[in-house]
Amino acid sequence: MFEGCFTALVTPFKKGKVDEESLRKLVEFQIENGVDGLVPCGTTGESATLTHDEHNRVIDIVIETSDGRVPIIAGTGSNSTSETIMLTNYGEKAGATAALLISPYYNKPTQEGLFEHYKAVAKETSIPLILYNVPGRTAVNMSPEIVARLSEIENIIGIKEATGNLEQVSNVIEYSKDDFIVLSGDDFATYPMLAIGAKGVISVTSNIAPKDVSDMCRFFREGKFAEALKLHYKLQLLHRAMFVQTNPIPVKTALSMMEVMAEEFRLPLVSMADKDKAVIEITLKEYGLI
After folding, report:
1. How far is residue 278 from each of residues 157, 248, 258, measured CA to CA in Å?
2. Is residue 13 within 8 Å of residue 262, measured between CB atoms?
3. Using an 8 Å Cβ cutoff, are 8 and 39 in contact?
4. Is 160 a catalytic residue?
5. How far is residue 232's CA from residue 189's CA, in Å, rounded to a whole number?
6. Euclidean distance between CA atoms 38 and 4, whole angstroms
7. Number of domains in the chain
8. Is residue 142 part of a domain?
9. Are 224 and 43 in contact (CB under 8 A)?
10. Using CA of residue 64, residue 70, residue 132, residue 240, what is the dihedral sign?
């Protein structure tokens, strides 16, 4: 169930509010192009600036629109343990397949603090939980040893690993229990991570190129390594463009150029300068997306 390409969905806005019509359109676009699952309300979904009501509504829309066709991993993490439990309980009640929990940001907890945080959430919920390690956003790297301890908790089933550090990923896989799932959180590193035992990716780039990212994962799963590697290198062009500025600014800009949604962000994120937008436009044209 948790193998392949899971798209870290952007949250479309229109005149300051969640654009529900465009969100449904994006979900359909993803499913039609073969993604294995969807992840609303993650970093790419600007979850840190959504109100609780908006956060829950986005999860509801994605679950309703997908209508059981693909698994939904709801982003429900926060830097507050109590808030994480509240959001995760809502995701479970709404019918999400699993929950994605970012490491508490800003607080800079110790490794033992991270363990206790996730242990507390697991105790208060029964939905499958996927840890999310992205030290570039949280200022704390979750060690493979702590991940291994957490993997022994029954409803903690995996981790989204976004360090881009293959040694760390390898250690996580080696130290954790055998059925623990590792998903790439870095589009550039997906193929190498698959090669050392990861099961898939929670992808930013698949917002705009869902078929190619999904096919790369599927080819690898089917043992068609040459075909997967070819797509890995083809996608590098898009990956570079999608991270030319802070995510999700480039990917939302690209989606607006593809006429999927309006180009609108929520402060403190702002639109790209024209010279940077030109880079996105040139890349999309070269790739054949516009």
Report:
1. 41, 17, 14
2. yes
3. yes
4. yes
5. 9
6. 11
7. 1
8. yes
9. no
10. negative
Nearest partner of 149 among 189, 114, 185, 187, judged by Cα: 114
Burial state string for 8-33 with b = 16 or more CB within 10 A and e = fewer than 16: bbbbbbeeeebbeebbbbbbebbbeb
pLDDT digit string (tens) for 203-250?
999 999 999 999 999 999 999 999 999 999 999 999 999 999 999 999
Token pair listed for 135: 């030290």
Catalytic residue among 90, 105, 118, 132: 132
Here the CATH number for the domain that contains residue 139 is 3.20.20.70
Catalytic pick among 160, 191, 199, 252: 160
**What span, in angstroms and rounded, lies between the C-alpha atoms of 173 and 92?**
27
pTM of the predicted protein model: 0.96
Strand partners, 183: 160, 200
**What pLDDT, in 10s, does the model give residues 96-130?**
999 999 999 999 999 999 999 999 999 999 999 99
Range of the domain at 87: 4-224
| Active site annotation includes 90 | no
